Queue: 4 jobs
Job 1
Amino acid sequence: MALTISRTSPVDRLTRIVLVCCAGAPLLVLTSILVATVVTPDYHTVSDTLSQLAAEGAPHPAIIAAGLVLAGLMLQGFAWALHRRLMDRARGRSIAILIASSGLAMQTAAFVRDDPNVEGARQTLSGAVHGALASIAFVAMIVALFLFVRAMASEPGFERVRVMSRRLGWACAVIGSVFEIQVIQSIEGLLQRVFITLFAVWIEVVIFGYLTKEGAPRGPDRAGCEV
């Protein structure tokens, strides 16, 4: 039996719209980071994390907060599209939950302000919660990436995507670990930006190298399908 999916089916059109939004979202997130960086005095890109752009006392926390909310929406849309497409349904479900949870953690962190990174500043409950949410987002993304590599073993014709995902996964794991254990605090901001960039590159690789390509069946909600 041959399974085909109509390109004009409502579900398929919605998936394409979501993927276009996910592919373009990193540019908007980058814009919010750049603007927030410019308007925040005494901010150091290499040593200060993005959270410092919305820390207590920051002049324009809403700018980076908007970027985090948008990033969360991107991850949630990406998770939904992956869940529909992956043939390995069990891992696909786990991957979608992890990535969507990472997005939710980012969105929540946008409204829980971090402690300022200045000498003498005391740790607050808000800062501790913000840090925990950031760690959840990082760990969930890394685990999801490696699960995706395993799931792609069931996807014929996409070995290049699987290999690139594995390489990006190890790079994210190493950089994310160094960032999380804070062994080089003087370049925390740089490490965070490299991690985010690598994960954004992975999303683009998966969108353009896998999700927008014809091939495997696309999950259980196959409106417009013929068998």
Job 2
Amino acid sequence: MLITSMKKLLSITLTGVTALFLSACAAVTNSQAGKNTIAKLPEPLKSQFQAISRQQEELGKQYTAGTRKMLEAYALIADSVGLKVQAAKLRAESQALNSGSSLEDSRKAFSKSSSIIKEVQSKISKSNGVTVASKETFTAGVRAKNEAYITEATLAANASIVAAKGIQAIKSASMMEKAVLTTSLDPLFYFSKDIPRFLAQEREFDTACQKYALDYQIKLPKVSLPTPKINVAF
């Protein structure tokens, strides 16, 4: 079921906003401040958003793991076609992420790597004249990339379900509560909106990888990369 879009929700909640109202939004940029605010909510909102907060933290850990895996996969693919400098940068960003990394850490690592990822994708897509340095490394990179894809596709679908629950719960909140709670859902909106966009590009890149493999007689495993089902409309 499609849920009211985030933009519509925000337009409603921000109508007639005061400076105090906006300061409440800013408060939840700090994770602990957000938890403290949620703890003061009336029931059943408090229990609902405490559960959502726990689910969101778990999804954040999955995102970090998926991002680490994806960056390492691109490092392998870059290595396989001789892009050694790019591979080293991607590997450094990947290895900097761990179980203690925050969502912000993961997003920064991916953002810093996005131009290199595009460079690798372009190199593979223009397969004519691109010499493969290691078929084994290329195969390992594509396999790791597909594993990371499944992790992030599952994450995006699950995040949209949790976001939909949060949006539904917010409907019964006061105006001040709406400001705080809507902002607290920002990571879920990111998972549900931005990750699917990247995954759409990944499906296109997988087609390029398959063509590249065919051109250089590399055996790649046949893997179906599903489009995640998103339960929130943007």
Job 3
Amino acid sequence: MQKLLLGALLGLAVMTPVAAHAAPPAPYQIAAASDFDAMMAKGRQHDARGEYEDALSYYKKSLAIKENDFAAQVMIAHALLMLERYNEAMDLCEKLEKHPGAKDASAYYRSEVYVVLGGAQGLKSKREGMMAMMKYGLGVRKQLEKGVEIDPDNARARYALGRYFLEAPGMVGGDAKKGTEMLAKAVKMDSDDWVIRGNYVRGLFQINSPSAKEEGERFVKDFASIPASQKTFADVIAKLK
């Protein structure tokens, strides 16, 4: 029973550690508009390759240029989550909920606050066991649903909630078919995100979809240049052999 409930709390599309990596609305190319934009874009480049320590470093440089910037802090929280620094990510997200710049921020960044917060709570519960599980309960799902509600076009929010449905037991709303369908929508929104694509393929195998092998082979080919993708989804790749 405990294992089932802990699984239900894994709400965030975890890559490995989670999941999840951010799919920002702006391109990954370095912008020339300002040093702030350049640092943010450089962080996203590292983020996209699973190089989270480097990403965190550039997001912090962005924040040093534009003090208290909402978007920079959201991306810092994301990087902390990916580095498994869950308490720090949660603390920052809780502060961002009350940030004066939130009301003027884009829907994407406001959505990300809840995606990261739900992911950090779920993964902390999975790692620390019953006490953390009792504290956060099924609030993980509520956080992820709020992320989707704020920005329905945020691929990573849909991906995170899709992973929740994919991994949670039926007693708390888990539904592998529903989860895979939601992941398919996330892929349509951002087919270049290797974390989303890999977990979509994982879902296809889980529901025994006839297209699982073909999609898996396409995933391996498309992201061969990103070592983290091959390591993270070794279980998927093994099914192709």
Job 4
Amino acid sequence: MIIACLCFRICDVDAAGVLLVKANPWDSTISRVIPYESQRPRGNYESGYHSYFITKRGKQFSVENALIAKKISLPDRNAYSNLVDQSSLASLLAEKSELEGVVRSFPQAAQHIRGSIALLDEELTKYNAGDRKIEGKWLNPAEYAKFQEDLKARQAAEQKRLAEYRAATDRRIAEEQAAQAKRLEEQRAAEAEQRKREQTAEEDFARAKEDFAA
């Protein structure tokens, strides 16, 4: 029996993790726990029945897919670069709960997973102490308050800039339309004046012709 592979939030081929491996495809008992630093794509001439990994020391190894009971991807400090409210904390809490569940279900994997749980606990401790994480950097409450003030100021300045840009654009369009309307009016006036001169010339020519005939 082949048990489907279980992956957590970070399932990139480059993520570090732990393999729970069975002795035989039909077994349900985990015979080996193998940590890996990253998973690499299968090469053109490598078997599609295996998955390929790299250890922390750079050694490559493969495991038959049918023997992989679970593949657990582990988080790192860069996984949660922004922790500012409960919604941004939700995925961290969910991952911590999942990892703790794995440790309960598979105690033999605990030594490879507890470090990641401890890492998440450190993040939670800082958050619960009032610190907030912005783009990977922790800010204390005073720093975060200043960050928010600066952010609001930048947003206000940007909104002002956009409003001024829109106003300038509207003025430019209005001026262009007014100039176009003026050009059209002048053109119509010039055409009317030209028609008047032509009509006057025709009338003068007609009178001259009559006077000559008389």
